[in-house]
Amino acid sequence: MAQPQSPTAPWPDDEPAALAPGAAPVPEYGVGSLADLLPTLAAGQGVPGFTPAIPELAPADRNCVFLIDGLGWQQIKDHPDEAPYLTSLLATSRGGTGRPITAGFPATTATSLASVGTGLPPGAHGLPGYTARNPATGELMNQLRWRPYTDPAAWQPYPTVFQLADAAGVHTAQVSSPDFAQTPLTKIALSGGTFHGRLTGEERVDLAAAQLAAGDRSLIYTYYSEVDGKGHRFGVDSDAWRGQVMNVDRLVQRLAEQLPPRAALYVTADHGMIDIPFDEESRIDVDEDWELSAGVALLGGEGRARHVYAVPGARADVLAVWREVLGDRFWVASRDEAIEAGWFGPRIDERVYRRIGDVVAAACDDVAITASVQEPNESAMVGMHGSMTPVEQFVPLLEVRS
Predict the structure, then answer these.
(1) What does pTM read for this prediction?
(2) CA distances from 115 to 125, 340, 392 (A)
(3) Backbone torsions φ then ψ of 257, nearest 5 degrees
């Protein structure tokens, strides 16, 4: 299995013509990924069954995780003027090492939130991308919007860390938009304790602080989505995106200033983001490319992390063509190669195996595989994410203690 790319090491400039699946910089599963955060915090609170996976983090009686959708490590480093408070915390990341953690593959919201809440990597919790094939029906399932609907408990059967902490007597709560209160993704990834819906960011952080103080041991989660939304629509260097970064910077400081005694605040993200130019070289449209579409029954995932499901008997041909056409700009792997390389974590549950594409393609360049007919909205996005490059994988773990 390839070792994770160090955040301080230079990214290779001279990749080989065909990028080997085993050479991809896999996430730091087990020692420094999003899936390791809540188990580490719960272990420090004495919740049975957990061990501290991220060794740099010191225990606290009261823990709050503030997840900012789409605000990766590199975006904070690149925007000190818009995020002065977050920038001041960079040295605290990952227990004072000044290093990021990794999101997990694919670096996308549904997968990452499931990893955060369950404490499991994607190969175990079973949300391996933005869209993935349901082996029982043969249909593509959007795992963010949960369409078409399938039984959440069957799709992701493991208890969340919040549920286990709540059962162990830890005060647990989630504070987020009311829109997320009853979604299947919330139920399978973030349920346990009490969900509190609040409309504004200020209301959320104020209530998160109050909930943190409500127990001798507390595990609180709060979430902000607007940075990601502006990045997708306008790009990560747009005025609209910068405005949201300025807003969330103030919210983090507001929450930090209200921490009760014996508390730790952790600020993280589900992925970073990269702007993809609108030209034919940077956006490869499968719906206009007969080579890449030949033998493909379903196209899943998203532009920078694709699951490709072949028609019966065409798997080897699809893999060969995708590797030949894209192999200098994407890590292209068969399902088994991606699993063996550890892309989805150290283990793959049987129920998850065929949700993964027959072919998996992860971008290593500033490029995306779009589908203008099948995915018109996604194909029009400026900012994208999903792959294993540092800008997408590295997310902060900023820390404030009372």
Answers:
(1) 0.94
(2) 7, 20, 16
(3) -75, -10
Between CA 229 and CA 236 the distance in angstroms is: 10
- With 0-12 / 13-18 / 19 or more C-beta atoms within 10 angstroms meaning exposed / middle / buried, residue 6 is exposed
Chain centroid to CA 303: 15
Q: Are 63 and 220 in contact (CB under 8 A)?
A: yes
Cα–Cα dist 234/214, whole Å: 39
Spans in the chain with pLDDT lower than 50? 1-17
- Two tokens at 33? 């990924």
Q: Are 14 and 36 in contact (CB under 8 A)?
A: no
In this structure, what token pair is assigned to residue 252?
A: 């983090």
Phi-psi region of 134 (alpha: psi -120 to 50; beta: other; left: phi over 0): beta
What confidence tens digit (pLDDT) does each residue in 122-131 have?
A: 999 999 999 9
Q: How far apart are CA 397 and CA 86, in angstroms?
A: 11
- Show the 3-state SS of 285-306: EHHHCHHHHCCEEEEEEECCEE
**Closest listed residue to residue 318, CA positions, set 308, 327, 328:** 308
Average pLDDT, the chain: 95
Question: Which residues in 280-304 are b (16+ Cβ under 10 Å) and which e?
Answer: eeebbbbeeeeebbebbebbbbbbb
Omega of the bond prior to 106 within 30 degrees of 0, cis? yes
Q: What is the pLDDT of residues 257-285, one digit of tens each?
A: 999 999 999 999 999 999 999 999 999 99
- Determine contact, residues 107/71, Cβ cutoff 8 Å: no
Question: What token pair was written down for 293?
Answer: 């579409």
Instruction: Compute the distance between CA of residue 324 and CA of residue 308 in angstroms, rounded to an integer.
Output: 15
CA distances, 149 to each of 183, 184, 185, 225, 267 (Å): 11, 9, 11, 23, 32
CB-side neighbour CA atoms (13 Å) of 366: 8
Q: Which helix (H) or strand (E) holds 36?
A: none
For the chain, give the longest Cα–Cα distance. 62
Tokens of 316: 């080897």
- Dihedral, CA of residue 359, residue 388, residue 384 and residue 174, to nearest 10: 110
In one letter, which amino acid is 192? G
Q: Do 268 and 37 touch, CB atoms closer than 8 A? A: yes
CA distance 185 to 106: 16
* Beta partners for residue 363, in sequence order: 330
Distances (CA, A) of 38 to 49, 58, 340: 12, 13, 26
CA distance 311 to 353: 17
